[in-house]
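for the writeup, i need someone to sanity check this before i put it in the appendix. the sequnce is what the collaborator sent (i think, or maybe the updated version? ugh). structure was predicted straight from it, no edits. if anything looks off just tell me and ill rerun, i have time this weekend
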Amino acid sequence: MVSLTIDGKEISVKPGTTILEAARSAGIYIPTLCYLKELNVTGACRVCLVEIEGAKMLQPSCAIPAAQGMNVSTHSPRVIKARKMVLELYLSNHPFDCLTCVRNQACELQSLAERYHITNLLVKGERKKPPKDDQSPAMVREPSKCIVCRRCVRVCKDVQEIGIYQIVERGFDAVASPAFKKSLAETPCIYCGQCLLLCPTAAIHEREDQEKVWEALNDPNKHVIIQTAPSIRATIGEAFGMPIGSLVTGKMVAAIKRLGFDKVFDDCFGADVVVMEEGHELMHRLQNGGPLPQFTSCCPGWLRLCLLFYPELIPHLSSVKSPQQLFGALVKTYYAQKAGIDPKSIFSVSVMPCVAKKWEAVREEGTRASGGQDVDVVLTTRELAHMLRTAGINLADMPEEEYDNPMGYASGAGVIFGSGGGVLEATLRTVYEKMTGKPLETVPLREVMSFEKVQEAEIDLGDRQIRCAVARTTGEARRLIDRVKSGELQYDFIEIMACPGGCVGGGGQPVYPGLDTWDGQMEQRYKRGEALFQQDRLKKIRKSHENPYIKMLYKEFLGEPLSRRSRQLLHTPYTEIPLYDLQGSARSTD
């Protein structure tokens, strides 16, 4: 062990431990902006400077290992003065639009400026004013707010393995950006939004669509419905000060009804429909020789990765739409018919954990099966929370209320779609029972030792085994796909979720300002996922094919899974997105 003194407190740590980690182990606060343990340790922001006895210069505590006998001060007058100067330098080249910024009160730079009582900028001079990039359908970049922390670079390159961002230009003009300062719409960005979650400011944020929903809610000629994704019930509570992983299903429904929606539906119902269609598609492939493996297609981030980088796998993608898109098509056909409403008057809103869903809703293929745009507006979890606060609704104070039917009841299988591995388990519950006549109690997922974030399972069907795998993050998916393509690994069914932890870790979920360890980020996502499996365990009906409203849907409207009508409404074709053609895909600014 290495012994050192920090602020007069003697501490013993393992060799290699940084001063920052040593301080935190003893409950001593040191601020950071760029630091993200296990992912981004660059010492770039210089906010974590400390004074080491005997050293001429202040040192970045995140990058300097503790040494035997070291005497460190974390808040000496010299340290405080230096940190304030660093913050002033950042602020001197930062827009002063905090009150109108989407990250107001959730900005790490703003929080540190308040903590260090920055009330007057001594440093003044020219400010860089790079143009805003708002051409993609999912995300907006404001380079003027970039503090060059490199978090987006690291997560995009090392976790997702897409590599959209890099530091372009030098010195005063340095900024994290796509190559040649191109728009995100002109890059192979998959819109997973992981860069957005880790950005300490608002240099990257979602394209906001709240105003469109407010307008629809106030239009007497619109019948406005909303579907909420499975994971929202375990995440939106965080935006109102509730503990991570709080299940707030009933409170959320009550709060949304107070906003004035005509119907509040559960997208888990759509997930149940996906299980029926995708499960029967898998059984058909198993019985007719493929093509196998069948890849799930619920995640639009993974879908974009496949269409951009693995077009040869398109025949292996399930043709079933995601729960969002499938639900949107059913709302404007099945629900409209059942409720006697003109489909043209229906305004369909979804609340999703994912910014890529905004792209999915407007992609050219499979989004107009109902005759119009199936999903009119996609809101993120954060956007819904903003709308509730605007209306003066405190989620924590709401009573428990139920979703509306016929598209508001879901099985436990539909609920677990929101966590990594949930799509695979939900589908296999139905497939196993349909093929064997016996219930599947649990899917024995186990870790594959060569993949930290990949799990596999083998299900015995009597006459054959189904080999399955789950990959979380597109980086892990790339390695898994490479080994499948080489023949090293063989599977029948593969679930891929672009975001770490699945939808509970999506780019549209509440952010954790100040949580600067990657393991800590993941721990929060696992808590959210466990909440969904907890609700699944409490459900009386845990299999999609046993949901009485799903049975009614097929009896009254669809006929049976993979029928002509279900293929027309619930399935979609896929076309390669040529990398060379991306430059022409940028949309004009609204």
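The chain has three domains: 2-91, 128-207, 210-570. Confidence is low (pLDDT under 50) at residues 584-590.
thx in advance!!
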